[in-house]
Amino acid sequence: MSHSDVVDATYLDRFRRAQRLSYECVEAVAATLEEGVTERETAGRLHDWLTDRGVRDWFHTPFAWFGDRTAFRHFVTPLHFFPTRRRLETGMPYILDVAPVLDRAIGDIGYARTLGENPIHDELMTDLAAYRDLIPRLITDGATLRDVYLEVDELIRRQGYDNRHRVYPGRVIAHQVRDVESRLPRFIAFGFGSRALRTLVGDLVVERAHHRSPLWASGAISDHRPEPGLWAVEPHIGFRDVGVKFEEVLVVRPDGSATWLDDDTPHVRRWRQQGLACGLADSAEVPA
Questions:
Q1: Dihedral of CA 182/187/190/192: which sign?
Q2: CA-to-CA distance for 34 and 95, rounded, in angstroms?
Q3: Which of 41, 172, 32, 49 minimizes the C-alpha distance to 100?
Q4: pTM for the complete prediction?
Q5: Residues in Cβ contact with 255 at an 8 Å cutoff, skipping those fewer than 6 apart
Q6: Banded model confidence at residue 201, pLDDT cuts 50, 70, 90
Q7: Is the pLDDT of residue 50 over 60?
Q8: What backbone phi and psi angles, to 5 degrees, belong to 5?
């Protein structure tokens, strides 16, 4: 299936189901977290919850970050992203990130919360709503991927925070997602599922041949309009030792307009209760 075909309702429904399963997972595991649990133990709970519900393949294995690691402080190599023996404490922020593959669709999401009260985290989460409103609006208005990245950077600066998605490999704020299709045996390589990694590498080769990239960053290679299809978008902001983000799928239609795949997510429900603008569509369903 070509990228321009992915506004088909059946296709989107599969990705919506995968994304909702991922959010069900992190909410269920978050409810079990207690003082003293480690990142590794938490990642194991996320993995077990998903495999118990039939997941057998991954875009990447589950991540859990506690405390200042939510802001990616002192992350120097990709190894620093993997779960550690860091223990959760009362008042500490945490981020859970899972990306299972369900019926070939990737459910790549991020979930930021705290154990107990943390006013700085709450303020960052409130301010994060603006990015969910800004990103699809800029895309619909004709901005390139690079334009959006730079506008996000400017909003981060105005809010008094710092950009933490620039710490991800490639400094990416998003990556393109589509069906995972590969005949490779299933195995995990550097935290990534072999079949999903093969799909991403194939997209990189094809897109680079057309002077485009399936990775959304601030460089010249991202100075183009997004290809129609699905993008897993994850703006990540930090203040001192607290980091917050959301990650969910953005749908870019062939006409260039953009909407979020699903408006029924934990962070959107939170922002709706606060009465915040957060990029809500008239309908979360995208017509065929």
A1: positive
A2: 14
A3: 49
A4: 0.90
A5: none
A6: low
A7: yes
A8: -90, -5
